[in-house]
């Protein structure tokens, strides 16, 4: 049992740690009380430990043991990025088992949600509750077009000297633009001990894995018995919003939240509404 003095509840102050599993050294951060079932965060395309919105992580870490990690070959984790989502799920499983957990809750976003689905399908006994945000099912419509959208928005961002996430995650309108700036600013709250940036070859391999996943045979999600919360914005240009509805139809008893006038990063734009909802769902 942790004493209250050493419980870290702000992501900006979460200590950076490493653990080795199957020859790969994984970089991770943990915060919140160290008891109970942990909530493992599965991150998005091109993302490192520094890409989690503290306004989502911190509220969950008030009552739960939260762990974020770098996928193999990303940020502070060693090795080479796998070229399939399924292999990424195998790596995540190795990381979780190395930490000694037999049961976890998952919070996932985008590519992280694809990895989470593959993990749950293969190891249903490991996962108690599942949060899938900004994501879609294996073989989902237009998932294989994500690379094209991503490269186009990176170009648009470069020309305007902006962060690509401002284009990829948010609508370019009067509500989306300020929400995007605020989100990017929040990601800079951690000033010390920041993670290594994503390298271009690793990013390109992740995009290939997503394309393969988008063209893959759909997983049988009807077998999922875990309580599942699905969330997105109503105008997701990266992983089309209809795919959240598709997941909702296929996962029995799942709950679906779609935020208005928002894109791929709808949960970040609406963090004030979404964070308490996620906390309540995970703590049920």
From TrEMBL:
Superkingdom as given in the UniProt entry: Bacteria
GO MF annotations, alphabetized: hydrolase activity
Alphabetical keyword list: Hydrolase
Gene3D superfamilies: alpha/beta hydrolase (3.40.50.1820)
Record field: transmembrane: none
Domain AB hydrolase-1 residues, every copy: 39-268
PANTHER family given in the database record: AB HYDROLASE-1 DOMAIN-CONTAINING PROTEIN, HYDROLASE, ALPHA/BETA FOLD FAMILY PROTEIN
Name the record gives this protein: Alpha/beta hydrolase
Native source species: Aeromicrobium ginsengisoli
Lineage: Bacteria, Bacillati, Actinomycetota, Actinomycetes, Propionibacteriales
């Amino acid at each position: 049992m942790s004493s209250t003095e050493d419980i870290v509840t702000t992501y900006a102050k979460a200590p950076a740690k490493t653990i080795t599993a199957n020859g790969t050294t994984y970089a991770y951060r943990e915060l919140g009380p160290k008891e109970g079932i942990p909530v493992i965060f599965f991150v998005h395309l091109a993302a490192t430990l520094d890409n989690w919105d503290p306004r989502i992580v911190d509220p969950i870490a008030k009552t739960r043991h939260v762990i974020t990690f770098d996928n193999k070959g990303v940020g502070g984790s060693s090795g080479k990025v796998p070229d399939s989502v399924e292999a990424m799920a195998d790596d995540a499983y190795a990381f979780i088992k190395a930490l000694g957990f037999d049961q976890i809750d998952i919070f996932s976003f985008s590519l992280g949600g694809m990895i989470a689905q593959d993990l749950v399908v293969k190891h249903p006994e490991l996962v108690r509750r599942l949060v899938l945000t900004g994501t879609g099912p294996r073989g989902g419509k237009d998932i294989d077009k994500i690379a094209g959208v991503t490269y186009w928005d990176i170009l648009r961002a470069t020309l305007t000297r902006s962060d690509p996430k401002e284009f990829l995650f948010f609508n370019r309108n009067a509500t989306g633009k300020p929400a995007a700036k605020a989100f990017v600013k929040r990601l800079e709250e951690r000033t010390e001990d920041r993670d290594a940036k994503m390298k271009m070859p690793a990013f390109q391999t992740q995009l290939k894995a997503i394309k393969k996943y988008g063209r893959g045979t759909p997983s049988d999600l009807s077998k999922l018995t875990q309580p599942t919360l699905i969330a997105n914005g109503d105008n997701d240009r990266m992983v089309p919003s209809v795919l959240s509805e598709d997941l909702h139809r296929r996962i029995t008893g799942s709950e679906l939240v779609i935020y208005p006038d928002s894109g791929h990063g709808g949960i970040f734009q609406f963090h004030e509404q979404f964070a308490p909802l996620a906390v309540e769902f995970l703590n049920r």
